[in-house]
Amino acid sequence: MNSIHFIINPQAKNGYSMKVWKKVQKQLTLEQIPFHAVFTEYRGHAAEIVGALLNGTDAEDLVMIVTIGGDGTLHEVINGAANARNAMIGMIPAGSGNDFRRGYGIPKNPLAALQFISERAKTRPFLADIGEIKNEQGDVTYFINNMGVGFDALITKVANSSRLKRFLNQFHLGNLVYAYFVMKKIFSFQCSDVNIVIDGKKLHYKKAWFVTVSNQPYYGGGMKISPQADVGDGLLNVTIVQNLSRLKFFLVFITVFWGGHTKFKEVKELVGKQLTVQSRSPFYAHADGEYIGESPMQITVHHQAMPLLTKKVD
Ligand SMILES: Nc1ncnc2c1ncn2[C@@H]1O[C@H](COP(=O)(O)OP(=O)(O)OP(=O)(O)O)[C@@H](O)[C@H]1O
C-alpha cells in the first residue's frame, strides 16, 4: 500500500484528536502500514500542508490524505486538494460535529474508521460532488457538506470563536454551545429579504432567516437539514426558512434534528446546479461550518470532482 499522509488537528475537540491519533498510530505500526504525519499549527494550515504535498508530487501519482480532526480541518483539506485530481481524501473523525462522518458513512470508532479507509484504498475511490462558492471579489471556497447564509452562519461564527465551546468540549458537550447561541441570538437576529437565482430562475423570499445549500443531509452536528441531499447526484439542495415569528422559528429549528421542518409551509426547498444568493441586508456566510464572509455568494456544484476514501450513503 502507498504511504498514507495523515493531517492531524491536535486542537480538535480539545485534544481528543491526539488520543485518536495515538490509537491509530499504534495500529499502523502493528499492521506495518507506511505513513507520514503532520500536525496543524493554526487555522488554515491544513490547506497549506495539502497544497505543498500535492505540488511536490507528479499528477499521475495518487496521494492518500487522511485527516484526523473535525469537519473544519476536513474543510481545509478539501480546499487544499480541490484543484488537484490525484488526491484521495479520507477522515478519521475526531471533532465535535462530525457531519462528514454521518453523511459519508464513516465508522465512529477510530480503528474501525482506519480499517474502512484501508479497504477503500484498495478499490476505486468514491467520486463525490463538491460545491464551489464565489464571493463578490471572486474569492473561491469549496464545501463538501454544506454552506449557508443568515442565522446559521451567525451561530457558527459566534460558537466557533466562543470560549464556552472549548469549555463544554472538555465534557464532550461541545454541541450544546450551538443550542445556547440559538437561544441567545434568536431574539436579536434581523431577518432579510433574499433573492435567489437558481439555474436561471429568479425567486424572492420575504423575511428569510437563513438559506442553506447542501451536498449531503447533515449539518450542525447531526441535524437533518436536507434529507433528500445526495453527494453523488450532481445537484445542490437549497433550504430557505422565511417569514415566521421568532417563536415559530424556534419550533421549526427543533424539528430540523429529525428532518421534520420540511413539512412547514415557511420552509422552502429548491434543487439546482448553480445559484446566487443575495440578501437585502448582508448576511454572514459559512462553508462546512467555517465563517467565510458575507453574502452575496454564487454557488456551483462540481459533479464527481472529489475522490474520497468513503462510500456513498443511501
Ligand atoms: N493547531 C491549531 N490551533 C488552533 N486551531 C486550529 C489548529 N489546527 C486547526 N485549527 C482550526 O480549528 C478549527 C476547528 O477544527 P475542527 O473542526 O477540526 O475541530 P472541532 O473541535 O471538531 O471543531 P468543530 O466543532 O468546528 O468541528 C478549524 O477552523 C481549524 O482550521
UniProtKB/TrEMBL annotation:
Q: Which SMART domains match?
A: DAGKc (SM00046)
This protein's record includes keyword Kinase = yes
Q: Which residues form the DAGKc domain?
A: 1-137
Task: Cite the PROSITE patterns for this sequence.
Answer: DAGK
Alphabetical GO biological process terms: phospholipid biosynthetic process
A single Gene Ontology MF term assigned here is:
ATP binding
Task: Provide the coiled-coil residue spans.
Answer: none
Keywords, A to Z?
A: ATP-binding, Kinase, Lipid biosynthesis, Lipid metabolism, Nucleotide-binding, Phospholipid biosynthesis, Phospholipid metabolism, Transferase
Q: Which domain of life is it from?
A: Bacteria
SUPFAM superfamilies recorded for this chain? NAD kinase/diacylglycerol kinase-like
Known InterPro entries for this protein? ATP-NAD_kinase_N, Diacylglycerol/lipid_kinase, Diacylglycerol_kinase_cat_dom, Lipid_Phosphate_FormReg, NAD/diacylglycerol_kinase_sf, YegS/DAGK_C
Q: Which cofactor does it need?
A: Mg(2+)
What family is it from? Answer: Belongs to the diacylglycerol/lipid kinase family.
Q: What is this protein called?
A: Lipid kinase YtlR
Source species, please?
Answer: Robertmurraya siralis
Instruction: Please name the taxonomic classification of the source.
Output: Bacteria, Bacillati, Bacillota, Bacilli, Bacillales
